[in-house]
Amino acid sequence: MASSTTSAISDLSAALVVTPVPLSDWLIILPVALSIGAGAVLMMLRHAMRWHAPIAITALVLLVLLDAALLWKVVTEGPFTMVMGRWLPPFGIAFTADLTGTLLSLTAAIVALAAAIHASADIDASGRRYGFYPFLMLLMAGVTGAFLTGDLFNLYVWFEVLLISSFGLIVLGSTREQIDGALKYAILNLIGTTLFLIAVGYLYAIFGTLNMADIALKATGLRDTAPLMTLASLFTLAFAMKAAAFPVNFWLPASYHTPRIVVSALFGGLLTKVGIYALLRVMVMLFPVEREELSMVIAISAALTMVLGAMGALAQNDIRRMLGYIVISGIGYMMAGIAIGTPSGVAGAIFYALHSMVLMTALYLAAGHAARLGGGFTLSSLSGLYRQAPWFSGLALALFFAGSGLPPFSGFWPKVVLVKSAIDIGAWWLATAILASGFITTIAFGRVFLLCFWRPAAASTGQPPAQPASPLAVPSFAPLVGLTLLVVFFGLFPESLLNLSQQAAAGLGNPEAYIQSVFSGGGRP
Q1: Where would you find the membrane-spanning parts of this chain (predicted)?
Q2: What is the SS3 string spanning 117-179?
Q3: Which of 52, 314, 445, 492 is placed for a possible disulfide with 400 were both Cys, Cβ 3.0 to 4.6 Å?
Q4: CB 480 within 8 A of CB 262
């Protein structure tokens, strides 16, 4: 008896990965390790602020390269998994890379790199002293970790990491407006986080596991006996609040206009997309039957989110507030893809998420540059920008067209996919909402261009503008130009991104390869 017990204890293959981990598999944790390491180095160099921008930009260049290599490995070899501590899944904490996660991770790294370069000329000594660049790197650790984790509780952990760093970023400057915005942002996001944690605890009580692949395997057997609809509803509400979907979107327009414009650009480009990613991962991959049952609720929320967001943008005088409502409207399009649930609908949601991450960052940076040229953010104080900076006006017009979903820019194609997908399932009213929202958004952007760019300076009305600041340094132009070129390129040549989005959607709808990557080293077949 003792001998058999000793033999069982010494048989580590029953609980641990005993074969050497391939060197290429370490690639999956390097993006997170790099972000955390760079943030720690920057905190240790808090008295040498001149090094913050070069170190952060170098780290983000490396992050882009690592994420690109990770995407290439997934495209060529399929999803793969690395389990921490050598424990076999589902006991060990898994990092799993698939097309959806790696596409979003790479896009997030590109957006963060653009923001870091812009900040090198825009964030003053006070902002650096209070930790802009360390917070940026920790934010990227949270975002990247959320996209790559294969464990539902660790998705919650990475949400917490990105939220804590975003709290630090939103209060940089400590103005009354920033403190007010940070308070609303913090309280309402903490409510969403609490709902998420409650749902995770409820899920563990039902499934006895937090590994996403294991949950996907067990869900079918538990569907007739466990309250999975209640669980799915909790996750939908929590992630909808994170994504700023109607009716739990009121925190975003109350806060996104308050921080420095580069921080708003990061928030508009990244944070709500993590909520959309979580909805895709949980509702499409783990609970597809429950998603189908909730599809009408999600679709109604999507339609109201996109239409009311566009109407809110049309009503704003402050460009920053307007862009906050544009972010909300874009969330509606992605929610519509999730509600439709077909491979093409999910592909449209993924494509739109990638497009929105780049576009919204570029739009906020463009708003910052317009304010530097014109002396303010309000439509009543800005005018004559076309005469003052024709090349910048051309970039802004291209971004406005992309945000409106007009060809030949990147926003056109995901909307086409979503409208067709809605029509294919007979949801004409949802397709109409998509088109109506795009029309209202076009009017909102047209209003901005006519008043701020095309209107002669002498025709400006309202309060006299503040004294215009000097234009930004050349390093701040490069991110805006680069992001705009991406928007134009993927509008003219959408095939590669559309193909990757379709493959990613297929992987979510049929997660067999994802599950096999997790359990290929042992454990469940």
Answers
A1: 26-45, 52-72, 92-118, 130-149, 155-173, 185-207, 227-252, 264-288, 294-315, 322-340, 346-367, 388-406, 426-451, 472-493
A2: HHHHHHCCHHHHHCCHHHHHHHHHHHHHHHHHECEHHHHHHHHHHHHHHHHHHHCCCCCHHHH
A3: 445
A4: no
**What are the tens digits of pLDDT across the range 79-90?**
988 888 777 777
Distance, in Å, from the CA atom of 130 to the CA atom of 45, rounded to the nearest integer, reads 12
Burial of 398 (0-12, 13-18, 19+ CB in 10 A): buried
How many whole angstroms separate alpha carbon 103 and alpha carbon 221? 31
Four-residue CA torsion sign, 375, 379, 380, 384: positive
- CA distances to 143, 195, 476 from 188, rounded to whole Å, are 19, 11, 32
Which stretch of DSSP H or E encloses residue 94? strand 94-97
Amino acid identity for residue 266 in this structure: L
Rg (Cα) of the chain, in Å, rounded? Answer: 23
pTM over 0.85: yes
Report d(CA 454, CA 389) in Å as an integer. Answer: 11
Cis-peptide into 408, omega within 30 deg: yes
Q: How many residues does the chain have?
A: 525
Record the tokens describing residue 330, joined without a space.
Answer: 């874009």
pLDDT at 475: 63
CA distance 196 to 242: 10
Residues ≥6 apart with Cβ < 8 Å to 322: 313, 316, 444, 448
List the one residue out of 351, 370, 343 whose CA is nearest residue 449. 370
Report residue 510: phi and psi, to 5°: -130, 85
Token pair for residue 198? 């409650």
Phi, psi of 257 (to 5 degrees): -90, -5
Q: How far is it, in rounded angstroms, from Cα 306 to Cα 313?
A: 11
* CA nearest to 100, candidates 77, 82, 64, 74: 74
Q: In whole angstroms, what is the distance from residue 329 CA to residue 486 CA?
A: 21
When the pLDDT of each residue in the chain is averaged and rounded to a whole number, the result is 87
